[in-house]
Amino acid sequence: MKLSLKQFAQEPGAILPFSLRLDLTGEEWNGMRPFIQPVQVEGEVRNMAGAMVLNARMSTILSLVCDRCAKPFERKKTVGYETLLDFELANGENDDIVLLDKEGELELDPLMQEIFLLEMDTKNLCSQDCKGLCPGCGMDLNIKPCRCKREVDPRLSKLAQLLEQQGEQE
User: Fold this and answer.
1) Calpha distance 160→3 (Å, rounded)
2) Phi, psi angle pair for 159, to nearest 5°
3) Dihedrals φ, ψ of 29, to 5°?
4) Cα-flanking dihedrals φ and ψ of residue 95, to 5°?
5) pLDDT at position 47 over 90
6) How many CB atoms neighbour CB 121 within 10 A?
7) pLDDT tens-digit profile of 89-113?
8) Apex 20 CA angle, 82 and 39, nearest 5
9) What is the chain's percent helix, strand, coil content, to nearest 5?
10) Distance between CA atoms of residues 1 and 108, nearest Å
11) Phi, psi at residue 102, to the nearest 5°?
12) pTM, whole model, 2 decimals?
């Protein structure tokens, strides 16, 4: 979707709403395809005394796998974004400004896709208190505790023996 902002820039106080759907179902993220439905983008561009401000809110449902217990789960992902728009940079480079093309237009789809992908989490947990899997037997610790006997680091074996002896004496 292209927004034509050349004339809009001449109208202080003007508001230009927009809405679009990004189909990211073919996008791969961490070896998976988590996008099970399109990303819904709602936003507006405001001309505030000559400064154009773009506000957007993107949301979708993601199909993920927990990084601790390996269970699949779904989670709603919402991303907010705000930036300034301009035709050229006034004082050198500024990362907070998105430049319009020569015709004063902004191609929204690639910008919104990039912002959404940059906001994807690198670690996904089914819940904040997920206990994960036992590294010894693979038991899901969210369901029940494992019965593995923990191996003692050989460097600490004497200390472990002392602790066992102390526990027997009590």
Assistant:
1) 68
2) -65, -40
3) -140, 115
4) -70, -15
5) no
6) 13
7) 666 666 677 766 677 777 888 888 9
8) 80
9) 20, 35, 45
10) 6
11) -60, -30
12) 0.74
Q: Are the C-beta atoms of 124 and 66 separated by less than 8 Å?
A: yes
Strand, coil or helix: 73:
strand
154's CB contacts (< 8 A; 6+ apart) are none
Query: How far is C-alpha 41 from the chain's CA centre?
Result: 15
β-strand pairing of 51-65 with 97-99: unpaired
Closest by Cα among 57, 43, 67, 88 to 131: 67
Pairing of strands 15-22, 39-48: antiparallel
Number of H helices, E strands in the chain: 2, 7
Where in the chain does DSSP place strands (E)? 2-4, 15-22, 39-48, 51-65, 72-86, 97-99, 105-107
- CA–CA distance, 77 with 27 (Å, rounded to integer): 15
Whole-number Å distance between alpha carbons of 72 and 83: 35
pLDDT at residue 93 in the model: 60
Give dist(CA 86, CA 101) in Å, integer: 9
